Each structure stands twice: as structure tokens, then as C-alpha cells.
């Protein structure tokens, strides 16, 4: 053995003696740099996918050609200005400093004048306003009154505003009861907090899952798996919390594909997600199958009930064929549900729930070394508006189970009527099989985005979708008296586009169409960022 080592040593020294010492010193360092570069490239491909990386590299190379980058930037700004559609000129008249003398009560007149300039939204918007009737009476008035009574409160100061702390606890408990907290299968520990909306609820669920899985499994390079139809809040969470997103295509019914999701699970997977229903097409993902998958791999599973939370439990009681979606499903670790949608609470109210306290503790932030004292906070915001919590509590208590059942009956019936009306328009087809109150539709005959532009000119505000190109309406109580008008306007819009195809003046169809076909998604992202930067 010793002779073999000596021979190997002599051979190696003889081979290396042909090279300069400096080369022998630099070569390992160079190899290390190359290995690091290759590793970074592979990691980038792993995160973004091969095609986006190749397209991005190609576009970056093209921009090096003299004049090309300048041309692209100029064209990009044209698109941004088109998207802003005159809002920039309106901003020029906005106040940029305090009035020298305060307006006192006169400011109320200013508010009323500004409000009168808002567009007509009653019965014309997809989602947006979920409470029915007039904003100055009925449930609107009740919620506003509740908010006004507690507008000065802040649950950060629980010792002072004990009523608001109780309201939050009761809103969370009542919401949890809708999702199986009273069933033995839930484990009897369902807990949670109120948040500012569905996005914050999802952000907290993702952050909590990340920290919980780090504690439980030691995962330090977290990944989560989402369907293409999952809400963009998951992408926001991934950017905020440094999590890799593995995005899987939906199946032929536009549901999360369980088989493809399973393929993506690896040692770094912290969570998978399901929607009930998904925002784009109103389709409920296979929650039971996803729950079984999460349970078998011992990872977290979040169910997005932001849209369906205050509809599905009541639709099921009304006899609609609603598949399991809540904590009764094994494997579900967290749920988000918006009170400010079909819960008919004030804007800025949502709930995030967890199966047990062990999981939820990872949501909190505790600070022990601050000179301002010991600090602990349950959600992203420190100070929170107690008026919104009171408004949510008032909304739920005033409606009760009977009120929610009646509301659900109305919106489910009008949703089915609108769906049938769309199906009766030969040029249109429904995307997927809507389970609830979101109806997406497209066309193989006319440009659906041109149809959307015509509908916009008639005062409608619908949502443009992609993959495939389509639009949807999220039906609320506002649409109960407006369904026939919607269908009539939609039929007329389709007929107009069919008779006179092509973009209308001021329409956004060309931009939406081009964005959907653009291979460089980085450029599309730049357009969105530029648009937002000039809009707020």
C-alpha cells in the first residue's frame, strides 16, 4: 500500500512539475469560480425555468446592440402612458402641501365633491363592492356606524381597548366555526388573527409555514408549490420572505394538478396551496387530494378561502355540491378568509387561521432587546384600526347565519343565471366549471379583450385574464338587480366586435393581447413596475 502511494506521489509530482507554480495556485481558484458560476446558473434555471432564462439572456444580449435598448425603453414608456390613460395629467392638479389655513368642517364638502367624481360602480364592477343596496342605508350604514364608533381604537393597546380585543377574538372564533373548528377532526385548537386583507393573510400563512418547517425539519432554502391559478399574493410572499416558487400548470378543468404538484415536492418544500375557489376561474382545487399529499410528505398546506370563505359553508347548507375545503380535510394547516368580501365587512378585514397554536406561534414577532421595552406583535402591522375590527364584528353579528344563507342563495342563483346567459351567446364559452360566483369566459370567434373594451365603454369594470385570454365577473349582491343589464350589454358588445373587429380608440385590448404573447416576461414585469411607479 505504501509503495502504491509513493508511486502515485511521484507520478503526480512529475506531472505537475511541467507547470509554473503560479498556474498551480490560480487553477484551483479559477475552477472554484467556474463551479460557483455554474451553480448560480443552475439555481437560476431551477427558480425561473429554462425557457425564461434563455429568453432573458437573449434579450439582454440584444440590448447590447447600439440603439436597441434606447428604442425598447422609448416603446416601453409609450405603453406605460397608454396604460395610465390620462391619470398622470390628473395628478398634476393634486395638492402637494398643507393649506396655509385649515378648512375645518369645510373639508367635508371637499370630500363630497371628490366622491361625486368617482365613476358609477353600483352593480357595474366585478367584485369590488360586495354589500348590496345603497351606500347610505341598510348594511352599508350599519358597518359605517360601527366603524365610526371605534375609529379611534387600536388593538395594539389591549389593556385600553378591551372591547376591540374581544371583537377580534369573536370574529376569529366565528369564522373558525364555519371551517370545522367544532368538529373533532379539526383537533379542537383552531386559532388565528384578523389582518388587513387576503394578501396579508396569505403573507402571514407563508411566513408562518416557512418558520414552522425550519423549526420542524431544518429547511433553510424553502420552496413552495403553487398552481398557475393561485393568487399573486404567493409570489409577493416569496419575494418578501426569500422563498422559491415552483409553479405547476392547472389540469384540463383549470384545477391544481395533484400529480404535477407531487412531482415538484423535494427536501426543501415547505408548503403547497389550494384555492377554494381560485380567483381567475372560480374553480375549487382538489383540496382533499392535496391535503392527503401534504400529510404524506409532512409539509404545510394552505387553503385560500379569501373568496369562498363566507359563501361555501352556506352554499353547502343550501344543497349545492361543494367538495370538502376546510379543516375537516386532513393535512390542511392554515386557511385565509376575507370578511370584507362576502362576509360584508368593511374594506381591510380578513382572517388567517391555523390548525393549532404550535403552528401559529411562528407567525408572531417578539423583540427582547429594544430599549423601548419588550415587544410582541401578532401580524405584519403593529398598530391596527380597531374601527375595522368593530365593523367586521358588527357585520357578522347583524347578519347571522340566516342572513348569510339568504345572501348566498341570492348570489348563487344570479351567478347560475349569468353563467347560463353567457353560454347562450354562441361566440362565447365558459372557462372551466365554476363552483361558486366567479364566471370566466373567452372566445374562439372574437377578441375577448376587444369585447372587454366595449363593456368598459358601457361602464362595466371586469377582470382581464390570461392563459387563456379571457375575462371574468365576480358576482356580488350588487349584481342581483343588474344581471339582465349585464347580459344584454355583453351580447351587444360581442355583436359589435364581431361586426367591426379591431381595437377601439382608448381601448387596452392591443396591450393585453401583446403582453400575453410577449416571450420576455421580464419586459412585461418592467412595464408593470413603471406603470405602478407612475400611478401612486
Automatic annotation (TrEMBL):
Modified residues (N6-(pyridoxal phosphate)lysine): 341
GO molecular function, one term: pyridoxal phosphate binding
Cofactor: pyridoxal 5'-phosphate
Pathway as given in its UniProt record: Lipid metabolism; sphingolipid metabolism; Sphingolipid metabolism
GO CC term (a single one): endoplasmic reticulum membrane
Coiled-coil annotated residue ranges, if any: none
Keywords: Endoplasmic reticulum, Lipid metabolism, Lyase, Membrane, Pyridoxal phosphate, Signal-anchor, Sphingolipid metabolism, Transmembrane, Transmembrane helix
UniProt-listed Enzyme Commission number(s): 4.1.2.27
InterPro entries named among the record's database cross-references: GrpII_AminoAcid_Decarb (IPR050477), PyrdxlP-dep_de-COase (IPR002129), PyrdxlP-dep_Trfase (IPR015424), PyrdxlP-dep_Trfase_major (IPR015421), PyrdxlP-dep_Trfase_small (IPR015422)
Pfam families per record: Pyridoxal_deC
Annotated membrane topology: Single-pass type III membrane protein
GO biological process, one term: carboxylic acid metabolic process
Family matches, as Gene3D superfamilies: 6.10.140.2150, Aspartate Aminotransferase, domain 1 (3.90.1150.10), Type I PLP-dependent aspartate aminotransferase-like (Major domain) (3.40.640.10)
Cellular localisation: Endoplasmic reticulum membrane
Family membership: Belongs to the group II decarboxylase family. Sphingosine-1-phosphate lyase subfamily.
PANTHER family named in the record: PTHR42735, SPHINGOSINE-1-PHOSPHATE LYASE 1
This protein's name: Sphingosine-1-phosphate lyase
Upper taxonomic lineage: Eukaryota, Viridiplantae, Streptophyta, Embryophyta, Tracheophyta
